[in-house]
Specification:
The protein is an alpha+beta fold and 163 residues long. 28% of the residues lie in helices and 24% in strands. The structure holds zinc ion (2 copies). Residues 8, 54, 56, 58, 61, 63, 66 line the site of one zinc ion.
Length: 163
Amino acid sequence: MKIDDSGCLFWCGTHNANGYAIVCFNYRNYLVSRLICWIFLDLDVDNLKIFALHNCRNTGCINIKHLYMSDQSDNMQDRYRDTPHWATKKTHCKRGHEFTPENIYWAEGHRKCLTCKRMQSKARHDKENEKRRKEQGTIETTDLNGNVVIKAIRKVVHGDAHI
Ligand SMILES: [Zn+2]
Ligand SMILES: [Zn+2]
């Protein structure tokens, strides 16, 4: 489970095509958000007339504080439940990475490219490390998953900080 700045809890397991966290139980798929509401709010999971809605608009979010029950799905929720037309047409992100199930995550009801996100955080990391390297003579490189792959520390000897 991951938590983001807005407090949304992201399910690291399976998501359905609309970005909802799902879990398989007794050969049936359940929306995790419904199960959470069942546990904390006594939702009858088999009563499909009661919806577990997100007030944070993150369909993949399973934070009980962001969930509420309603006997009608609100318009916004409807919009997110049915994949928007523009999203179904798009098969690649703006940088040309393919939208495969492994390469997408959902934020604010939209599909986002995981590769781009990793590239961005790697670029940020590299920038920070470059700054650190200049300051302390430290070099650190991360792979696309953010793991440290090379870490070498050179002491500034005789005022020479080159690596
Ligand atoms: Zn949330
Ligand atoms: Zn991308």
